Amino acid sequence: MSRAVAETVLKGLERLWDRPPGFVGWLSAVNHKAVGTRYIVTAGIFFLLAGVQALVMRTQLAQPGLELLTPEQYNQLFTMHGATMMFLFAVPMMEGIGIYLIPLMTGARDMVFPRLNAFGYWVYLIAGTTLYIGFFFGHAPDAGWFNYPPFSGPAFSPGVGIDFWVTTITFIEVAALVAAVEILVTILKVRAAGMSMGRAPLFVWSQLIMAIMIIFAMPPLILASVMLGLDRMLGAHFFNVAAGGDPVLWQHLFWIFGHPEVYIILIPALGIVSAVITIFSRRPIIGYTPIVASMVAIGFLSFGLWVHHMFTVGLPIMGLNFFAAASMMIAIPSGVQIFCWMATVWKGRPIMAAPMLYVLGFVFIFVAGGLTGVMVASVPFDWQVHDSHFIVAHMHYVLVGGVVFPLLAGFHLWYPKITGYMLSERLSKVAFWLVFVGFNVTFFPLHELGFRGMPRRIYTYLPDLGWGNLNLLATASAFVLGIGFAVFAFNLFWSAARRRHAGADPWGGDTLEWATASPPAVYNFATLPVVRGRYPLWEPAGIGADGIEGLELYDPEEPHRYTLGTTIMDAEPQQRRPLPGPSIWPLALAVALAVAVIGSMMDLTLVPIGAALAFIAMVGWLMPPKPEDSP
Amino acid sequence: MNGGVLDVRKLPAHTTGIDAPEWWGIVGLVVIEAIVFTGAMASYFHLKVVNDAWPPAFIGEPELLLPTANTVILLLSTIPVWIGVRHMKRGNERTALIGLPIAMAMLVVFLSLKVYEYAGHDWGVSTHAYGSAVMLMTGLHMAHVGAVILKTAVIIQYIRSGRIEPRRPVPLEANAVYYYFVAGIWVPLYATIYLAPHLLP
After folding, report:
1. Cα distance from A337 to chain B (closest Cα, Å)?
2. What is the mean predicted confidence (pLDDT) over A373-394?
3. B23-48 confidence digits (pLDDT tens)
4. Looking at CA atoms only, how far is residue B77 from chain A in angstroms?
5. Is the CB of residue A510 less than 8 Å from the CB of residue A536?
6. Do A216 and B35 touch (CB under 8 A)?
C-alpha cells in the first residue's frame, strides 16, 4: 500500500468500525475477527477437554483389569471424546479460522452477513456448554458419537443422556450450517477488485469447498436427529423394527453426513498446507489448478463413500463393492496434491521453521493413515478389523495427521498476525517433536493390537490376552503427546507475555493478510486493495489501484460501514455494500432458539414458546432501515 | 475496469437478484432445507422397501381428491407473489400490497384443509413407521407454510412503512425465493405421500 491515507480518515475508520465499550458491547460484537477469535478459543478449549478425556481412557486401558472407570463412565467418555472432537472442535475450529482469515485474504472489511456470523458463534457456545453441563452432572450420552438406535432409542436409553446428544447436536448443526453459508457467500461476493477465482488463494478455495460440503452433508444428520428425537419424545417408530422402522436407516443417514464430515475437516487443512508450503518454500505453488481440481474431486467423491462404515451390517455385496472402489479412488486426488506440494518444496528454497515441520509431519502421518485407509476400503479386510483398534489407529492417523498437524502449522503461521507477537521458535520445536513422537508411539501399536483382536469401546480386557504391554506403551506415549500439547499451549501464553513484535509480515508472505498490521486494524484495510495477480505481495504489480479510486470507502460527512461487493467469477466492483454494526439480536435469537431446541428435553411446551421468541428476535434483526436511514 | 476511472464510492449501495449476496444466502438456506426434505422422502422409500405392506393394511392408501385440489391452491398462490415482485422492481409497490395478502389467504386455506384432512385420520406419528414418515414430511411442510404466512405478514408491514421500497427490493425478492421453495417442494412431497402408494407396487 504505497498511497498514504490521511490521518483523519484512519481515525474516522477506527471510530466507525469499533464497537461500544463494556459487556453489552462485547455481547453485541459482529466483527469477523472477534467472532473468528471466539470460535478459535472456544474450539481450543473443547480440544483440551477431549484430550483430557482421551488420557483418562488411555489410563484405564493401560493394564488389564483396571478399575479407574466403571463401564458406564467409560462409555460416556468415548462418546464425549468423539462428539467433542468432531462437533465441538474440528468443524468450529476450521470455520473459525476461515471467518478470521477470509476477509483479510480476500481484501474485504468484513463478511457479508456480520450478524449471522455472531449468531452462529452464540449457538455453538450454547450447544457445547449445554452438552458439557450434562456431562458434568453425569448425564452424558453414552452410545458413541454416532449414537446408533435401537440402543440410543427410547427402549434402551430412557434417561436424559441421549436427549442431550439429540438436542445439542441438532443445535450445533445450525451453527455449522450458518457459518458455511456465511463463508460461501462471502467468498463469492466480496473479494478485492481483480481477485478472480483463478487468483484466489488456495486456502480460500479450500474454505469454499468445505462450505459447500457442509451445506450438503449436514442436513441428513439434522433429519436423523429429528427422527430420533421424535422416536424418543413423541413415540415415533423410525428406528423401531417392531413397528416397521429400521435401525439401518439411521446408519445410512448418519454416515451420509459422517463420511463427508471427515473430508469437511480435511479440506481446509489441505488449504492451510498449501498456504504454509507456498510461504516456506519461498516460491509459487506448483500445480495450483490440479490442487483446486483435487480438492473439488475429494469433496465430490466423499459423498459416495459412506457405506464403508457399514460393511458389516449385512448389505448386498454388489453395493459394498461400489463403495469399496470409491473409497480407494479418493486416494488419487489426495496423492495428486501430495506430489504438487513435494514438487514445490523440491524446487523451492525451504525454511525448516515450525510451520514447515508440522506440514512435513502431516505428510508422513496422513499418508500412513491413507495407506491403512486403502486397506480397510477392501471389504474382506474390513470384515476382520472392523470395530477393532486397527480402525482406532487408522482414524487417528488420518484425523490427527490430516487435521491437527495442519492446524498446528496454521497456528504457528498466523499467531503473529492475530496477536502481533512471534512464538518462541525453540518452544515450538520442542512441542513439535513431543507431539510427533508421542503421537506415533501412541497410535502405531494400536494397529497391532487390532490384529491381535482388541475391540474398540471396551473398558478393560483380560490379562491372558497379551495386550497389556502394547497398551501400556500407548498410554505412556499418550502422556508424552499430552505434554507436547501442554508445551504448545504454554508457548501461546508465554509468547504473548514476552511481546516480541512480529510486524505486518514476519514470514515474507504472498497473500493479502500480510499487508495488514499485526493484529489488523478493526477495519482491516484503510484502502481496499486491487489485485492484479495470484501472489499480490510477491509480484511487482501485484497490488495496484490504477483505474479505481475511492477505495477508502469512507465519507466523513456521512460515515457508514462499507465493503466492496464484487461479481462472482471476475471480481469486478459491483456494490458499495453497507454492513451492519454491533447488534444484540444475534444473541437474542440464539437464546430464543435454545429455549425451543434444548427446552424440548425438559418440556415440549417450550418448543412453541421458543419459536414465538425466535419470531420476535428475527423481526427485530431483519427489519430493514427506514428510507431516510438507508444509504 | 476498462478505460476511465471507476469511483467505487459511486457504486450502488443496493443490488438486486443474483447480484445480491442476500439472494445467495436465501438460496443456501433453500438448498439446506431441500436436502432435509429429500432425505425425508428417501427415508420414506427406504422404510417402504423394508416393509412388506406399505402403507400397512390397517391404514390403507391415502385419498387423492382433497390433497390434489389443495396442492393446486398452494401452487397458484405463487402467482400473486411473483406479480408483486415484478411490479415492485418496476417502481410500483401497490401491487405487492394486494398480491401478498391474497397469497397469505390462499396459504391459510391450504393449511386449514391439511389440518382437516389429518384430523380425519385415526393414525399419526406414533402409529407405525409409515405414520412417522408421512407425518414428518407433512408436519415439517406445514410448519414451513405457517412460517411463510407469518413472514409474509411481516413483509407486508415493511412495505407499508417504506422499509421495503423499489430502491431496495432485496428483502421482497429473498422472501419470494423462499416462498417458491415452500410451494415447490410440496410437489415431490405430494408425489411421495399421495401418488407413490397408488402408482408403485
Report:
1. 29
2. 97
3. 999 999 999 999 999 999 999 999 99
4. 23
5. yes
6. yes
Q: What is the DSSP letter of A220?
A: H
Distance CA A33, CA A42 (A): 14
Instruction: Report the C-alpha gap between A415 and A104 in whole angstroms.
Output: 14
pTM of the model: 0.97
Q: Mind listing the pLDDT tens digit for each residue in A420-447?
A: 999 999 999 999 999 999 999 999 999 9
Cβ–Cβ contact B198 with A under 8 A: no
C-alpha cell at B146: 405457517
- Using CB atoms, which residue from B9, B15, B50 is nearest to A565? B15
Please tell me if residue A608 touches chain B, with a CB cutoff of 8 Å.
Answer: no
End-to-end CA distance of chain A: 28
Alpha-carbon distances of A329 from A324, A336, A388, rounded to whole Å: 9, 12, 24
Min distance B39 CA to chain A CA atoms (Å): 6
Type and span of the H or E element at A279: helix A247-281
**Interface contact A89, partner B, CB < 8 A:** no
Q: How far apart are CA A228 and CA B175, in angstroms?
A: 31
For residues A310 and A251, the answer to whether their CB atoms sit within 8 Å is: yes
CA A491 to chain centroid, in Å, comes to: 22
Report d(CA B201, CA B198) in Å as an integer.
8
Contact: A181, B29; criterion CB under 8 Å: yes
pLDDT tens-digit series, residues A104-126: 999 999 999 999 999 999 999 99
Q: What is the pLDDT of residues A137-180, one digit of tens each?
A: 999 999 999 999 999 999 999 999 999 999 999 999 999 999 99
C-alpha–C-alpha distance, residues A492 and A160, integer Å: 38
Residues of B within 8 A of A565 (CB-CB) are 11, 15, 19, 21
